[in-house]
From TrEMBL:
Taxonomic source organism: Wickerhamomyces anomalus (strain ATCC 58044 / CBS 1984 / NCYC 433 / NRRL Y-366-8)
Protein name (database record): Actin patches distal protein 1
GO cellular component: cytosol
Family matches, as InterPro entries: Aim32/Apd1-like, Thioredoxin-like_sf
A Pfam family matched in the record: Suc_Fer-like
Length: 295
């Protein structure tokens, strides 16, 4: 792990660590597992010099759309008459009314879609995972995104803040709590930058292996609760800082790490996800602590 204090000065590093530790604890353990056998290719060019802290904005709402893919078109959410494109249009039109100056993200993901429904192949209909609320909205049609999200997002904010129960439906669309204790997303968008396409699968390999050892790995057919899901998403920004790792925890932590390599995989699981959100200042782009969800 690079010591950025050498480049930016100890005072800046101390200030960064103080700010981070006021939100989430800093880990006293090594960020790299020395026994990890997996390495990135030697020719992979990663920016090891720039200051990455606060190089990303905190997230208020993140919509995750399943596609069963690991790579996408250059602009993964621009196809008309799709759920993801309708959500992008909704956030541009109504997002500021819901959360003033809020940051809404829309991502396509390798999470599986309903392959039995032909409408899902075109994403005219799809499920949507809404984070950090850990809620699935089932089979929303793109035409109805505006009317549903205008009701659902303020409702989720209210229910989370009050600790209230999640309703079973909204406008006849089913709502389900996500059963995982955490989601980990890795940018794998090779079409945008090959570094992401190379680093993400290697990171997932090491994370999944460790999760299997801990009996926390879950595949698409495993509905045991409290597992940890590691999936791919499209471009999130900062290719040069690959691997980018975005973590959502049901206990309310939202953590964006970068410059991660396979040797970081096990410590991220142990210290960050299972260790109460412990992080390493040199790897942090942004950290947040929100209210946990009770459903």
């Amino acid at each position: 792990m690079l010591g950025l204090s050498k480049f930016f000065g100890k005072n800046n590093t101390d200030k960064r660590d103080q700010e981070i530790s006021s939100i989430l604890p800093l880990s006293s353990c090594n960020a790299e597992c020395e026994s990890c056998p997996t390495k990135f290719p030697s020719g992979l060019k990663i920016d090891e010099d720039s200051d990455i802290y606060n190089s990303a904005k905190p997230t208020d709402v993140h919509f995750i759309i399943p596609t069963s893919k690991t790579d996408w078109a250059h602009d993964a959410t621009s196809t008309p008459n799709t759920v993801e494109n309708a959500i992008v249009a909704w956030k541009d039109k109504y997002g500021d009314d819901i959360i003033k100056d809020g940051n809404f993200k829309v991502s396509t993901s390798s999470l599986p879609f309903d392959s039995v429904d032909p409408r899902c192949y075109k994403s005219e209909v799809n499920d949507v995972l809404i984070l950090p609320f850990f809620v699935w909205l089932r089979k929303i049609e793109y035409q109805n995104v505006d009317q549903v999200l205008n009701k659902l997002i303020p409702l989720l904010i209210k229910l989370r803040d009050e600790g209230s129960e999640l309703p079973k439906k909204i406008d006849n669309y089913r709502l389900f709590p996500a059963i995982e204790q955490a989601f980990i997303f890795l940018c794998s968008h090779r079409t945008r930058d090959k570094r992401c396409g190379i680093t993400a699968p290697l990171m997932k390999k090491e994370m999944d292996a460790h999760l299997r050892d801990l009996e926390l790995y879950r595949d698409v057919c495993d509905d045991r609760p409290n597992g940890i899901n590691v999936s791919f998403i499209n471009h999130v920004g900062g290719h040069k800082f690959a691997a980018n790792v975005i973590i959502y925890m049901k206990t309310g932590e939202i953590i964006w790490l970068a410059r991660c390599n396979p040797a970081n995989a096990k410590p991220i699981i142990d210290e960050t996800v299972l260790g109460g959100g412990k992080v390493w200042g040199d790897l942090v782009r942004v950290v947040q602590k929100t209210k946990s969800v009770e459903w």
